[in-house]
Batch of 2 targets.
Target 1
Amino acid sequence: MENKPKPFMNPYLAGFLLGLVLLASFVITGRGLGASGAAKDVMVTGVMNVAPEYASESAFYDPYFAAEGSPIRSWLVFLAIGVIIGGFVSGAASNRLGFKMERGPRIKPYTRAIFAIAGGLLFGLGAQFGRGCTSGAALSGMAVLSTGGILTMMTIFGSGYLMAWFFRKLWI
Amino acid sequence: MAPFIPEGLVNPQLNLFFALVLGLGFGYVLEQAGFSSSRKLAGVFYGYDFVVLRVFFTAAITAMVGLVFLSFMGWIDMSLVYINPLYVWSAILGGGIMGLGFILGGYCPGTSIVAATVGKIDAMLFLVGAVIGIFIFGHFYNAWEPLYMGYFEGNPFIYETLGLSRSWFAFIMVLVAVIAFAITQNIEDRVNNTPIETIQQRPSYVLPGALLLIAIFAFLLLPEQRKSNARENTPQQILAALQEKDRIVDVEEAAYKIMHEDPDFTLIDIRDAVEFEKFALPGAINITLDQLLGRRYRDFFRNPGKPNSKKVFYGFGESNADLAWTTATRAGFENVYVLQGGLNGMFETLFNGTEMPDDPLNLEEEFTVRFLAKARQMFLDGQVLPAPPPDPVPVRTIIELETPGGRGGC
């Protein structure tokens, strides 16, 4: 059974290592880690190339027209490329690669698919209002002890626990 | 002195390279921790798996304690670190929406990227949804811009908001985390009906937890210096320097150097821009008290220049220039001075100043009088016109930390 997935890392060790990566990010670049910003840059670049008239009419895209260079070459996109490589290397090293629709025991794959898209949609939308997601606002924001980041973190988890009961069929 | 890239210690061109390397570490650790599994992630909300809480809190506390320590030692300048802005209702709404998204989707954006790379189809769909969600935000941007940009409270720290010292807040955070780890482990075992043997075989975290708490508690006993950077002068040093009059540049010296357009003599007009436009000394630049500590002029002030170079503050009088000098000295800026008497004092000396005595007592006095007459003539003739103020050219490159649209780091 050489292809058996290896066990996950001890969560406290993983958290400590992740904390060191985050600290290194602050020490070297003055900013924390993030993920949703890369999705935004990819989306913005796509819209600006596919429908430039549409983009030029919206105030949302103004900063990107003002900024020189393509947003796809941004810091966050490079970070995301690193995350992709790092995640793949880790998955390969621990025999966890393979296509799979992960879902709770009581729902069908297509139900899971619909809720995954809906969840992503809400997360993408919320990350704009929150000015970052669990990594950029909550994790990095908590590490620098910023009120804004900690407020966003508390509302993410608070809202999650409030909603958990209503959607328990999805997971348990 | 950290942060390296905003401080100019590392070539900004390497910024993207570091992004890639940091991303590698980020992705690797997330995957190793099990964050590529939506069922594991969602477990935090149902009590069957608290891995999210353990990894998240441990990471946040590790980085937080590290930053507090580096800042305490004066090794990192927190004013150059991105501090999340506080737009109160936008943050609350955003967090609320994200929490619902977490329950429905089982991922957050970072974990969904990792999960997608190891082949999780639900994570790929989640990412598609995220891009659609961002597009929707952009499409209706005009409608929610007032909320998105409203209720702005600056970039406060949580300990300021709560009125605590930073060390106390950090200690409380660690304490809360350690207690949360213990309680959630207990909940997890009950929900999963973990056999008692498994619990007994598990390594104990009592010792590392206690050591961590003691180490953090030691911070509280240290005197809080609140050094934001290592170059600062202490209040004692500043008081001593204030009592000396070394900071005063007298009118004769200033006039002489203005007339000779000395490149190592920079006049800094601290009055507001309107006054500055009306009249300023030749070659002066305008940096008001509000702008003094701004990032824009940091490198200008920190660069000591040649040994005899002087950066001379002046206002109408001396008192505001003294304020600027005190502030600048406290911040560790070098070679700063104050113009004797300010603009008013200078003109008084130049115009109402000394008449040529009938019988000059000595050559030096005669020279001073002649010189002042010459300087007076210069101002009256406008030989040296008030030049348009050149902006000081930053010596080191400043990275613009705030990205387009004021978005967060995520």
Target 2
Amino acid sequence: MKKVYFSNIFAFLFLISSTLFAQEHSADSTANHEATEATAAPAHAEGEAHGEEAEAFNPGKMMMEHIADEHEWHFATAGHTHYSVPLPCIVWNKGGLKVFSSSRFKDEHHENNATYEGLKLEEGKIVAEDGSFVLDLSITKNVASLLISVALLLGIFFTIAKSYKERSGKAPKGIQSLFEPIIVFIRDEVAKQNIGEKHYRRFTPYLLTVFFFIWFNNMLGLLPGSANVTGNIAITLVLAVIAFFVTNLNGRSTYWGHIFAMPGVPKWLLVLLTPVEIIGVFMKPISLMIRLFANITAGHLILLSLIALIFIFKSLGVAAIAVPFSVFMNLIELLVAFLQAFIFTVLTSTYIGAAVEEHHH
Amino acid sequence: MLVSILEPALGLIIWQLVIFGVLFFLLAKFAWKPIMGALQEREQSIEDALSLAAKTRQEMTDLKAGNEKLIAEARAERDRLLKEAKEAGDAMIAQAKADAQKAGAEEIEKARAAFNQERANAVASLKKETAALSLEIAEKVLRNQLSDRSAQENLVSNLLADAKLN
């Protein structure tokens, strides 16, 4: 429920962002927490959030709404008007597929409290009123953003591929010369470096796709009003699972030998070491998943917190500090967008490199 | 809400799997493959061009060295020919000189022989003339002196005295 999340945010923030950030905000967390409970609880209970919610600014709710996925693409709220684009809902429930617009969930106050064909939105999730299983395959904000990023990636790289064909053997030009150094860098410094001369060719397309997918989505996530794709755990989960399978399905005897019977280690120690190594096999993709998710989400939360400060204090002085800080953070986030894509790719390539490594003792 | 952030949504997982899969397939087939191919081709052609340039440069150097060698050889040949010609000339001159000397010596020898012959002949005839003249003079002197008896005796005694002295 609404009250639960707020105290959790700070624990979560503490977990993922710098301690400095956490300390800065822990002071007013309790105060805000109580204030939120006071306003949010009756609002929810009586179903007339309207008047009171407009009065009290709820930074936690605002931040979570920006970070979480949603069934409509919400850009802004001015007064009582929400500027948002409804997105298609695709739901499998009770043996039937239902396709409808997310605007069906709007009630007369333009809040997502309406029910449609026995379905309702609960904390951004579509649930059945009777509690039956719902498979929500909706084009949510994240899915829509994913599709946009895919269109962008395909458009850009097909154009580049075309210019390579047309200008075969010639020096790169335009967008081609913008991306060529990055492609060559991923190929030479990431794939060849970490996987080795013999196998890197097989994995370069995968690594390039991962890198540009993450980078583009990180960058798109920095746009105002955009979706937080790479800061969504489902997205990073899938990327990590793919990395897990790519690594382990290509594991050679040396790789498995190092996991189950580390060479040069006494037998009795293997009892201890082998479980650790097996855990390591799963920890590697899990760390990939959490690292990307946490870094991107943390960046968004810091930015949102800085902006929220202005609305909490309603002071021009705070804005004068918060705005330059947000600009600074945005610049850092541009770096982080590239860096996290790069780190994900480099680590994946080192895992693959360890898996395909030949025996050399 | 926090749970919803930490809890991966099944629908989004499925969408991400499908979308990423399709993206990978399309990019790998229609972007990475031609791009990697073109990059490799270009790198190969640059490498080839560089090695060709190095090879050409080596060839140029070799050619230059060859030219210099040819020039040196020609120069040596010329020197040799000149030397040979000079030697031949010297030899011819020496030969001619030797021949001339030989011919001269022969002529001189012949002249000397002829001269000696002539002299011998002259001496012989002179001897004959002298003998005849002497006999004639002696005959005349004798005829003149031996006209009286005492002179004859005087002569004989003188002759005898001379003969004794000898």
